[in-house]
Design a protein that fits this description.
Two copies of one chain form a homodimer.
Chain A lengths: L5 H7 L7 E6 L3 H9 L6 E7 L3 E3 L4 H5 L9 E3 H4 L6 E5 L2 E5 L4 E4 L11 E3 L2 E4 L3 E3 L17 H20 L3 H7 L1 E5 L3 H21 L9 E5 L11 H14 L2 E3 L2 E7 L2 E6 L15 E4 L2 E4 L3 E3 L1 H10 L9 E2 L5 E2 L2 E6 L4 E2 L12 H19 L14 E6 L2 E5 L4 E3 H15 L3 H17 L10 H5 L2
Parallel strand pairs in A: 1-2, 1-9, 2-5, 9-21, 11-12, 11-17, 12-13, 19-22
Antiparallel strand pairs in A: 3-4, 6-7, 7-8, 10-18, 14-15, 15-16, 20-21, 23-24, 24-25
Chain lengths: 462, 462
């Protein structure tokens, strides 16, 4: 990487030298909100860098994985979303490095084009890179148990889910058939709960009508979590309600259960030792579960870029790989670098650090943008304050839980609230129309039609 | 492959021994129509084998490649389409061989499951395997210039098309920028014409609004064909109208032009020598065209399975790799084997062989099913007769040509007809609603939102 002094850097900006250059890394909830908030600001040039060309609505990714929605429904092209923001430029590229001294974002040279713009200088940097799946040191499990963080994850899970049904239909061996109709979801947070519920529904709706050999079979869905209850981030009352609903649908909920091994044929699990107990004593308590699909929803962690940023600035990195930010979501000693959303560890406002949910990212993105604009106007903003609007998870058709803090909802009312909120925050009017159409269709007919096996990998080694 | 004698084969069928077993290979227009026509037939068991789990509406595949529709919109899960057909079983698998003596379809063992059902005995076989892209001996061109036959083809073309725009935006080299904004479509049949029109539209709609560096650039779209006119299968009047419309949109139409070389950076083309002229004399007339995307719509050919069927039965194979069928679309000496749709060469009804269009496949699928049912009832049907309902191609927004034989239409009326017919033949009510919604949206807003770069390959080597 070249090192630039201030003079060289300034001359790069040519006719826009007067404008304050804001570079945003990541077009998720946080980054996109920051860009939109800065849209009308005079004297500010925004560059949004993302390695993908679309904003992904991650909360509905599990619906792509279970064939209810298709990828385009939960994705909006960043250029289209930001097309009217005349001060905003979108750059498709993967960030390989951040030169915090020279204030330059360096892009990986992937196109083989010697003239490609690979250095993006900034006056203010907003890092919104989110999180990736965390296999807790067992990255070799990733190909065996895909997570649910990207479109490709979702289509891969969808292909494996559907191939398991197909393999069950084609085999003549009852043991193989049972294994293929066994689905393991690791991690009982919102994503895991939603996944387990949706797999149960698709099996119940589809098997008896669409299959001949396995029409009378019942799928077995296991939802595992190392902790003592599902939806640990929710009110205990809602955890209990969700577990009751899941069990009512036929999901085997196993809390305090650890995954010890993952292989191509399934998982090995073990009851967690009681606190203070001897873990080794339970070694005989291991159980093998043959499964047609293992989905990993057990954890997330920060990106390597955030770790390198921590190393360069001295900002503390958490065990989860997120970086600890100041009260104004900047890094210590670097007021020009904001880290927002899932990538940031913010623990000023209350006792607990803020959760990794869309609302935190959205509010921090808006806040960071306002701080930038205020500074240029010579004003100061108070510290970031998170306004908790609650969290929700859907369990199945007309079943959900919603925790608004001051109020807990379950059942149909919570599901309606979930539906409304997700449509509201979905980016793009056309996407809302398409999603609503498909949800209505599914509600009436119980048919999930986005069931395409399209992963090349799945085709070659099903 | 095991060889089976008649007795063994019969005993395989156990309790359904009395039923006549029809096996259909391929769930395209022909195979699906055959299965649906046989739905209510008593005494007939149908097994539909396909290597994909969905029916693909190929005529709209170019709209997926250009971001107007998403894969699910043009695909319908075969199990869902056939869910009410109680006498029909769907089997996901790739046919590796057909034992015409033992009357067994052999599936490739891809799941690693020793107990998987890999042998499917038949009493009647309907082969409807369609065609694949034909590179005329230059299969090494396939990765450089993808065709448009599968969902994966379409998402690959879409990724390359969008990456070309992105690379043009990111480069600082004007020559590279021009190359990236040059798009070459090889083959001016319906698919090529539709592709060229759609690329021109997406560039015109998108560049000035969504890009900053290349906002004032104009994309260059070339439509090449070895023959003397576009849409050679249509009435000459319509060829002329289509060419006029394409040129009006800015497409460079080059007929009588041969592609001599394809590489990662573009193509080398040459004017076809005049009939009787010396081809070598024009060697200096070669021209190199640097391009950001090359799409192959130049030709199609039969599958290896059809070639092996020809070798086994002695039915003549055409140069295109299709098999010549009898007047009742069966193979000579094998009244139990039907070959229908694109895979069949049928030249009885008129002077010219039937074209490779959906209507031929649909009508032959219905006919084959009726012949099977009639035979069981001890009746005979007259030879297959194709009822030509015409063909159509769309050139752009509100522009199309339609050839009904007795009447030719162009412009808005033809486009409305095109729209109506395609919605009518699209499989699945939900798909129709979704497609209509998106077409209406596009018609009003000129926005194609299914513009996701999702191909892993494109991500790694853009």
């Amino acid at each position: 990487m070249n090192s630039h002094d201030g003079a060289t850097e300034k001359s790069d900006a040519d006719e826009t030298a007067a404008a304050h250059r804001v570079v945003i890394i990541g077009g998720g909830f946080g980054g996109l909100t920051a860009a939109r908030t800065l849209a009308g600001e005079k004297g500010i040039d925004v560059t949004l860098v993302d390695k993908r060309n679309f904003h992904l609505f991650q909360p509905l990714l599990y619906q792509v994985a279970t064939g209810a929605l298709s990828p385009r429904d939960v994705a909006s092209p960043l250029r289209e979303v930001l097309r009217r923001n005349k001060n905003t430029r979108v750059l498709l590229g993967e960030v390989s490095d951040i030169d915090v001294q020279a204030r330059i974002v360096v892009l990986r040279d992937s196109s083989g084009d010697a003239a490609a713009q690979n250095q993006v200088p900034y006056d203010t940097l907003i890092v919104a890179t989110g999180l990736v799946s965390n296999y807790f040191g067992r990255d070799d499990w990733e190909p065996l148990a895909p997570g649910l963080k990207s479109i490709e994850d979702a289509t891969e899970v969808r292909a494996r889910l559907l191939m398991a049904f197909e393999n069950a239909e084609r085999t003549t061996d009852p043991a193989m058939r049972r294994a293929m109709l066994t689905f393991v979801v690791v991690g009982a947070g919102a994503t895991g709960v939603e996944m387990a519920g949706a797999i149960t529904e698709i099996a119940a709706d589809t098997l008896p009508i669409e299959f001949r050999s396995i029409a009378r079979e019942k799928a077995r869905v296991l939802l595992l979590d190392a902790g003592p209850r599902v939806l640990a981030a929710f009110h205990e009352k809602l955890s209990a309600a969700a577990e009751r609903d899941l069990r009512g649908m036929g999901v085997e909920v196993r809390t305090s259960t650890l995954v010890r091994e993952v292989d191509e044929g399934g998982v090995v699990v073990e009851r967690a030792a009681a606190p203070g107990g001897d873990a080794a004593a339970s070694a005989d308590g291991r159980e093998r579960i043959d499964a047609g699909l293992v989905v990993w929803a057990a954890g997330v962690r920060g990106t390597p870029l955030v770790a390198s940023l921590s190393a360069k600035t001295g900002a503390p990195l958490t065990r989860q790989g997120t970086v600890t930010v100041n009260e104004d979501v900047t890094l210590p000693g670097h007021p020009e670098i904001f880290v927002i959303g899932d990538a940031a560890h913010f623990a000023h406002d209350g006792a607990l650090p803020l959760p990794g949910v869309a609302q935190v990212a959205i509010q921090q993105g808006r806040y960071a943008a306002r701080v930038v604009a205020s500074r240029l106007a010579g004003q100061n903003l108070p510290a970031f304050h998170y306004e908790d609007r609650g969290s929700m998870a859907t369990i199945g058709r007309a079943k959900a839980v919603a925790d608004l803090g001051w109020m807990q909802m379950t059942g149909f009312v919570a599901w309606l609230a979930w539906l409304f909120v997700h449509l509201l925050f979905l980016v793009g009017y056309e996407n809302r129309v398409l999603v609503l159409t498909q949800w209505a269709w599914y509600y009436v007919w119980r048919r999930r039609s986005a069931r395409l096996i399209t992963s090349r990998q799945a085709l070659e080694t099903p």
